[in-house]
Amino acid sequence: MDRRNFIRNVAATVPAASLSLEAAAPKETASVKFSVEGYTCITCAVGLETLLKLEKGVVRASASYPGKSAEVGYDGRLTGEKALVDFIRECGFQARKV
Question: N vs C: which end of the chain shows fewer Cβ within 10 Å?
């Protein structure tokens, strides 16, 4: 994983996304816990958590570097497990449902 590009992407994404407002807030209808491979430091987990929270349909996200995991609560009408796994892969990590 290219850590420098990952951090740059987190920094570039957060300000723009924080300006967007949705008419109706998503409701948590499902949750999933993933085992995540590819974290090299705490920044990886914090960055992934931040990016997950910005994804459409995600209500809550928590990532752990020492636990090599991520847990996501989401609105099943707006996203799903496959979409979340694909997004985590796009961020440079590998995820599988626990």
Answer: C
Domains defined along the chain, listed by start: 3-18+28-97 (3.30.70.100)
62: CB partners within 8 A, 6+ apart: 49, 70, 71, 72
Which pLDDT tens digits describe the chain residue by residue (98 residues)? 677 778 777 777 765 555 555 557 889 999 999 999 999 999 999 999 999 999 999 999 999 999 999 999 999 999 999 999 999 999 999 999 99
Neighbouring CB atoms inside 10 A of 39's CB total 23
What's the pTM? 0.79
What b-and-e string marks burial along 7-23, b requiring 16 or more CB atoms within 10 Å of the CB?
eebbeeeeeeeeeeeee
Structure tokens at 93: 């990590």
